[in-house]
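Ticket closed. Logging final result for Alkaline phosphatase.
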Amino acid sequence: MIHAHNDYENPLPFWNAYANGANSIEVDVILKNDTLYVAHEETSIKSNRTIERLYLKPLTEALNLELGSLQKLQLLIDIKTEAVSTLNQIVETLKKHPQLIENKSISFVISGNRPQPQDYLKYPEFIQFDYQSLEPISDPKIWDKIALISLPFKRYSVWNGKGRFTEDNLIKVKKAIAKAHSYHKPFRFWGSPDGKSAWKSLHDLGVDYINTDAPATCYTYLSTLKQRTYTNTFHSPVYTPTYESDQKDTEVKNIILLIGDGNGLSQISAATLANQGALTLTQLKSIGFIKTQSADDFTTDSAAAGTAIATGEKTYNRSIGMDINRKPIENLTEFLYKYDFVTGCITTDEITGATPSSFYAHQIDRDMTDGITADLITSKLNLFIGGGANRFSDTNLDKTFAVVNNLSEIETSTEQKIGHFLSEYGVSSMTEGRGHILAEATKQALTFLNNKNKPFFLMVEGAKIDTYGHFNKIDGIVSEGIDFDTAITEAIKFADTDKNTLVIITADHETSGLSIPQGDVKQQIIEGDFTTFDHTGTMVPIFAYGPQSYKFSGVYENNTIFNKVKEVLKL
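Final structure:
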């Protein structure tokens, strides 16, 4: 529960806290001339700011108009003047508002200057008290008048909310919370650090009311904490490369390009830490960063980014294989076809999705799906694996591709052009039980292409890292990132066996502005926080493994990848 500390100091007292889910609202009151003013000290009194005008009447209005969602709400009335006379005036004032004192969801709790506990029983049933001690009280009737226990944080810890508690401070804090809970009362620290790290720590320690001057931000953070915290159950066995061909100036025959859609550095970090601190990806030594801006926007979409990687030209957002003048650009699979390469595309998206289609199609807009399906049928690809079979129900796809029903049929096939649909519509996710089908598809495709006894190019997309980034769901980001690593493992294993294969791993862009403020590597727990539901302009990592992999280090534009591939292939 959230306690709005010194709520009256906010630009919009009561309403801001009430609308943003505060369960407790602090009201400092001063009795002067039989009037209860809301102020911290007498010198700051404003004549029109009374407890009735700022709190009691607005709360009544909210109830009458059925505004907001009234959960359990307490007004914590902090008395700044003499206890008994002020409290008596509070009682008389509240009696003027029977609708409020009869509402069982609303409580009025007296804090600050209070009578002695033995006098609590003198006051009406609707008046409760804030007990600021851990000393026991023998009379259970007095305990019934106590709504919560509040203690000063600085009595137990000097922690400022950055980093973590010291061990001795943590012991003191835990003991205080446990003692308060032994009386079966909710607990609050006042004067505690105010920020996300502090809110999370106090929440995890069992503090019932989180003290804050920013109720809206605190509510948003805590109410989404469960959704943003994930305990990983997927695992990618980490493969340690031999490094025998890595960074050597030897011939590159084959290229495997793996694209994690939306897979920025924080996404990779989250997957790594949730996978017990390592991935096959993190074993690689040649690392760089690419800038992802499109030709017409600071923040790219997948179409423009995919096209830049596939063609070597930056273009406008939504473009599939077209330049800024809406003219087709030769892509890698078309370019390599002229040099007798066999090529393939794999994705956990529909095969007509923006990233895979950038490697075989030419359409003005990514939503021109009919044109993209037609382009696949006439493309230079020898293999495709992805979702979206329904897109091809009224086409002659089977006249150019042997479409097989089982993934296991691919590696032994002698067909020149083969395809497999992972689903009729969209491909399911790891959290929906998809399993490590991306790794199996990569393994099958590599065997199929290699059996052609020609040089090959294979693009593999882990598409749903981006999907879950758009939803701000850390469970999907982590599970899809770890699954993507299983496909990377298959590529690295193949490269170690072949010794003439270069593996490149990157992303088209970052999605969601993900940060990972907290977690636990041993327990595989990750907390994610987000700045947007969209893509960002953040640079994304690029990794390479195999001969001449060092040429992919550095910082450069995403369209440079195309020319680097041509360079290492000497084409």
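The radius of gyration is 31 Å. No further action required.
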